[in-house]
Amino acid sequence: MSEVLLECREIVKVFPGVRALDGVGLRLTAGSVHALLGENGAGKSTLIKVLTGVHPPDAGHLTWRGEQVHLRTPLEATRTGIGVVHQERNLIPGFSVAENITLQNPPSRHGLVDRQAMNAPALRCLEELGLDLDPHRLVRELSVAQQQLVEIAKALHTQSEVLLLDEPTASLSPQEAENLFQVVRRLTARNTCVVFVSHKLEEVFAISDTVTVLRDGRSVLESAPLADHTHDDIVNLMVGRAHTAAKMLPRTPEPTSVPVLALDGICTARGHQDVSLAVRPGEIVGLYGLVGAGRSELVKAVLGLDRVTGGEIRVDGTPARIASPRQALHEFGIGYLTENRKEEGVFLEQPIHRNITVTVWKKLARALGVVSSAEERSVAQNLVERLGIRASGLDQNAGELSGGNQQKVSLAKWLAADTRLLIVDEPTVGVDVRTKHVFHELLWELARTGLPILLISSDLTEVITLADRVLVMADHRIRGEVGNDHHYERMSGRIIRLIHDRAPSAVSAQQDAK
Q1: 147: in domain
Q2: Last residue of one domain, picked from the residues 239, 271, 299
């Protein structure tokens, strides 16, 4: 039987007005992958902060190899052997790979940091992970996946025996995620325990040995073998009841109608070449590709945030020049639901009603530009009810909401503006299973009422669930188009083949889809 490294018993953590953890238990054993699951707000983040010394528990206790420990700071947790890789990177962009890896315990000589001596331990950690990275390279030059692996190398350097990975694949392509899983397997082979926090249950089942499920601050399943449970068992434990799939009524987009948005041979300063696509009323067009394919950059160029160097943009069949997202909204009716909701999607320090109505202040303004508070709140309240935004009231700041509800607020502001076309970029990254289904229902219903949607997503299941057609992008080009029949195994095979096909063509892809 594997050694128990870290155990928590009856952990309680209370914040003003909230009992975030209520008697949670967890047992982590050497050489295993332990999945920590739960919906947004279930207590996962708080438990991670207790395990890593950010928050002391108000009741209960932690034991390390059978001995009770008190982790008062993250440094104490690190010295004990507990490391964490957060969803948001915790690296210094202007430092080198070696400097970041050895940051918490840098080699010194005569009382000064010995920068030359940093390379040897950094290389050792990188080689252990199978990474071919120059330790002198600046972190800002690395991809998201490479930065994440540097974070794991940091944990190796501090000799972490328990490593917590918080949503590690949220921004990774399928291939990058598989590379990460190979690293995880190397870690468990050297007796490290990896705690895997994720909303992607297919990945959880692919890599995890044991599982703990939190709901409303309690552990409803504690350190159990994952093999004893089905996918549906875990979802039902997370939501507290039998979970039903998204209720999507049939819709039939008109394939011969004039596209609301059409791109013809678009080239951009970011390197896009000859990109053509069309989105028609009532249609959801999926734009799928690996991280770095250029999907978000293409959309930003169309919205005037980057330079279009060739080709033509047409709105309702008429050539259009778009200089800014503001013009895109007010002149052409195009809304953009960004993937970066915290920095670009919502004003975290502003109330919900102000976030929702920011796109229609001009319409609501009366004499001297004064916005009617009553009208503002009426518009916001209607959308809060329509989208099922869970909040204490319209005056609650957006930053106090869960990630899923923040995303709904971001969507609400575009619906308030009566957008004629909605571009949705990674709409469900970091949200839980139930919220994801709700969001899928919302997008499907919007399309059913005639709103065209361009969906950018790295979640292949999401694209196959929602899209009518899937455009596959790689290296800043469209590699082909696949008509979607929503059959996952068949569709995923065609899409993945297109990504890796060195000589793709839209014609061959369409023939393949028949």
Answers
A1: yes
A2: 239
Return d(Cα 470, Cα 452) in angstroms, integer. Answer: 14
Query: Does 463 share its domain with 396?
Result: no
Residue 316 and residue 197 share a domain: no
- Average pLDDT by consecutive 10-residue portion of the chain (514 residues)? 90 85 95 90 88 94 94 92 82 90 79 77 85 88 83 85 88 77 90 91 92 92 95 82 59 85 95 95 91 86 94 96 91 87 71 86 65 79 84 85 80 86 86 78 90 90 91 91 88 80 42 36
Question: Cα–Cα distance between 217 and 40 in angstroms, integer?
Answer: 11
**Domain co-membership, 394 together with 471:** no
**Does residue 232 sit within a domain?**
yes
Is 78 within the bounds of a domain?
yes
Same domain, 26 and 51: yes
> Are 66 and 45 in contact, with CB atoms under 8 Å apart?
no
Handedness of CA 82, 86, 90, 93 (dihedral sign): positive
Q: Are residues 402 and 483 in the same domain?
A: no
SS3 state of residue 442: helix
Q: Residue 192 is part of which domain span?
A: 4-239
d(CA 237, CA 215): 8
Q: What is the CATH number of the domain that holds 103?
A: 3.40.50.300
Interior angle at CA 286, CA 283 and CA 287, nearest 5: 140
**Sign for the pseudo-dihedral over CA of 157, 161, 165, 166:** negative
Count of Cβ atoms closer than 10 Å to residue 24 Cβ? 25
Of 196, 204, 244, 243, which Cα lies nearest the Cα of 227? 204
Residue 171 CB coordination number (10 Å): 22
In a domain, 414, yes or no: no
How many angstroms separate the CA atoms of 481 and 462, rounded?
17
- Give the number of domains in the chain: 3
Q: Which positions ≥6 away from 152 have C-beta within 8 Å? A: 85, 129, 163, 165, 183, 187
Q: Do residue 426 and residue 402 come from a single domain? A: no
Chain-centre distance for alpha carbon 484: 24
Q: Burial letters for 219-236: b for 16+ Cβ neighbours within 10 Å, e otherwise?
A: bbbebeebeebeeeebbb
Question: Residue 216 is encoded by which pair of tokens?
Answer: 């409303």
Residue 497 gets the label, from left (phi > 0), alpha (psi -120 to 50) or beta, of alpha
Task: Please check whether residues 378 and 441 belong to one and the same domain.
Answer: no
First-residue to last-residue Cα distance in the chain: 53
Answer yes or no: do 128 and 222 share one domain: yes
Of 239, 269, 293, the position where a domain reaches its end is: 239
pLDDT of residue 340: 66
Tokens found for residue 343: 């920095």
Q: What is the phi-psi region of residue 317: left when phi exceeds 0, alpha when psi lies from -120 to 50, beta otherwise?
A: left
